[in-house]
């Protein structure tokens, strides 16, 4: 079959994105997992990783300043639009976007752009399939690029091992890392809570996903939290032609599964049978 | 004093803490720097008095003077400018506004223009307290310029509460720049602890003083407590998991208005941070 | 004339890739010499703007015609700017078969984008 990539997103954080994807895992054979939430990668916590391999990720180039050559003319300071170089010619790495203007304007060639490691990409085997995840060094730039790298690595593994499915754990929000998580996927599943903020955040992420013309399905998590919130989200989805494919009521065992580092759908099978998880999976695989 | 409220993991109660601390203190200004998905205003319900449009530059090439030499395309590291055989194509949404193409252009054919990437809203609550929040337009890649605007506009304020974006990437860094104290909202689950570690690492890199608030206490396990002890992190408060709290939050209510014991927790946190 | 095809692996017998800007390789076929040369796509890892970069790369190899599965709006602009022509294939055949289909007049020329913009939802 043609390989399919499915991304799970949430807009707002903490709505149960990772718990949902973890619960889906046992229902798929022939699977590669890509954890693209590179700021907060959590999927690996629930999976026993074997043969973990890691490599450095060079996100961008950064200037290296040779202070022996520097004549303190301030050209780099004045031209840097990101205020990443101080008056005493020190680089503030967290502000640098790697554009290379400082190297260009330095009259004495005291600045060289060099590769800079901003994170690590990990590949490991698990009982259910290969897992690719990554870690951005806290405070670093270019998480969008690291997401692309994770997806690329996942595709390579899927090609080699002839896997049919890639499940992507996306990041919260709507900016570069989310965009990188969903370009070219065949389906997006949005995990939403029936809260005022949940509905508010849903709207922005729906606009984003629909802009890419990607088919979209909604999972309503902790669906019994607010009857009012639930009916508002239902109404919004109906008006915008979005199908709610699954409702998951609040269940303490979901948290208990995570605490015990187990996949929720294996930890409490009866609960998942009750909410119609089988049918949900079939719907996803269509 | 500038106090940032942040969390590695989303949904750990960052906005709840920020808004309730602010309302309990009844002083200063709150800025919502989670510009991708701002929520604070849904709870504080300020009356919006001012909207500031946030713009970002991008190059415009003068076809008359351009010699199609290709220097701009060779310089740009973001694929935002592409010299072809006939003309130079510009992709504004990929541009980081570094100014490099303009500098390398030998024909002086490049000028910068501005486009809107988002807005900052400024308003007042019924009580007279000020609230500002940023909102990034859908499809834009980075909210950092909006966060910087929020920060600059409140630079002189004596007391600022900052609702920060989740995670530890560039937008979070922009939100915590120059803060005096950071409150980490976490939850007692393996995910909460794992994500919190990254935040602690980031804050230590910037030498920012920090304390921890454990939300949904009682729902998970002990790992977060062990981690805080090992790392010598102050636990400012524990807020028990409660379905009543969750329901109040779901409908946009303020916990400190509804639950006196919650308000006491907020006071307890503020007393530890703000020393008069 | 040089014709480029998006390819998953190297050589004329490779299966065509289902992406343009992020294709693994391009096989460039020279219709005078009747040989295919494989070029690695240096743009495939770019976080954004891969399509435009890939067109520039191919133009530097003097390619005049590209055979692609799809083309975003940025890449269409770039193809026009570099005075190239783009044709679309739908079948997952080999590079050799795809070139043959083009030469037999069996592929449709792309004049406007076949996908929506990937990184910019609003055009400035």
Give your account of this protein's structure:
Chain A has 286 residues and is α/β, with parallel strands linked by helices. Chain A has helices at residues 17-24, 75-79, 101-105, 143-161, 176-182, 196-211, 227-239, 252-259, 264-267, 269-274, 277-285, and strands at 4-9, 31-35, 50-65, 111-126, 129-136, 165-169, 187-192, 216-221, 243-248. In chain A, α4 runs parallel beside α5 (176-182). The mean pLDDT of chain A is 92. With 276 residues, chain B is α/β, with parallel strands linked by helices. Chain B has 11 helices and 11 strands. Chain B has a 9-stranded mixed beta sheet with strand order 3-6-7-2-8-1-9-10-11, sandwiched between helices. Chain B has a two-stranded antiparallel sheet with strand order 4-5. The radius of gyration of chain B is 22 Å and the shape is elongated. Chain C is an alpha/beta fold. Classes of the chains: A alpha/beta (286), B alpha/beta (276), C alpha/beta (124). Chains in contact: A-B, A-C, B-C. Chains A and B meet through α3, α5, α6 and α8 of A and α4, α6, α7 and α9 of B.
Please tag this protein with its features.
heterotrimer; A: 286 residues; alpha/beta; Rossmann fold; Alpha-Beta Plaits; 9-stranded mixed sheet; 11 helices; elongated; C: 124 residues; Nucleotidyltransferase, domain 5; 6-stranded mixed sheet; 6 strands; 23% helix; 23% strand; globular; disordered C terminus
List the helices and strands and how they pair.
The complex is a heterotrimer of chains A (286), B (276) and C (124).
Chain A (H helix, E strand, L loop, with lengths): L3 E6 L7 H8 L6 E5 L14 E16 L9 H5 L21 H5 L5 E16 L2 E8 L6 H19 L3 E5 L6 H7 L4 E6 L3 H16 L4 E6 L5 H13 L3 E6 L3 H8 L4 H4 L1 H6 L2 H9 L1
Helix pairs in contact in A: 4-5
Chain B lengths: L1 E5 L7 H12 L3 E4 L7 H5 L2 E15 L9 H5 L5 E3 L4 E3 L9 H5 L5 E15 L5 E7 L7 H10 L6 E4 L6 H7 L4 E6 L3 H16 L3 E9 L5 H8 L3 E7 L2 H8 L4 H4 L1 H14 L3
Parallel strand pairs in B: 1-8, 1-9, 2-7, 2-8, 9-10, 10-11
Antiparallel strand pairs in B: 3-6, 4-5, 6-7
Helix pairs in contact in B: 1-11, 5-6
Chain C lengths: L1 E6 L17 E6 L4 E6 L9 H11 L4 E4 L4 H9 L3 E4 L6 H9 L4 E2 L15
Parallel strand pairs in C: 1-4, 4-5
Antiparallel strand pairs in C: 1-2, 2-3, 5-6
Helix pairs in contact in C: 1-2
